[in-house]
Amino acid sequence: MRYINTGEYQFKLTHAPAAVFTTLEKMYGAAQSADTEKPVDFEISLKFDSLIRRFIKPQVTFFSGDTSPFKPLPISQSYPVLEWGMNWCIAAYEFNKLIIHAAVAVKNQQAIIFPATPGSGKSTLSAYLALSGWHLYSDEMAIIDPNSLAVSPLLRPVCLKNQSIDLIKAWFPNASFSKTTHDTQKGSVAHLRVHTPNRYQNLHQANIKAIVFPKYDANKNILEIAELSKLEGFRKLSANAFNYNILALKAFNTVKQIIETTSQFNIAYNNLKDVNDFLTEDIIV
């Protein structure tokens, strides 16, 4: 059994293959100790599909309590399944905060939110910024307080896929990675640790400065930037909210206030340094 204290949420992992606990130590370290002043938000487990399956093509199934949102997958994919399952728990059961499918990078206590569809390069951009002087609050979901409009940090690794794994390893050879898992539904997957628990303790909620919708395009020679109208910014941001329909009017008002108090941009890029320069020089002041 392990506890996984991600800051905003605490998970209790009751069962998992031994290799999962080894990877948890590398990704979370001391964050596996229970915070006794904080309740357990989710009790989760990775269980073998059947006794026979333990010996013949073993599979594991993710459970949150008694609920299993995913089909059984090969035991070799146990750690990615655990991280995906933790994401599912938050997206499925968080009814007090607005959750945007987005990365969140923070500098000088100012947050930039990067909503993006799969294939946009969001996670590669997240990892690059996290290892280039930014604080990465999440590569997967922005947790926003509807009252303060502030975004909360999460102590979670970055999930990198396919060629992005080798790129980040080449650019940052001292970075700490999990083993690469091949042949998942997302291709090859590896997780990158971007915070230690001690470093995470210095992070606090941050105000949102801008919303940037990124799109990697190998054919772009220069960074292309287009500022959005408030109407288009609202449409695109609300479309990326996991729990927009559940929060209903609260979600509408939260997105509306975010759009009114920030700038929104589309960017198309093929050079991550150009993106970093734009964010640092033109948005973060």
Automatic annotation (TrEMBL):
Lineage: superkingdom: Bacteria
The UniProt record lists the keyword DNA damage: no
UniProt keyword annotations, A-Z: Kinase, Transferase
A molecular function GO annotation: kinase activity
Protein name: HprK-related kinase A
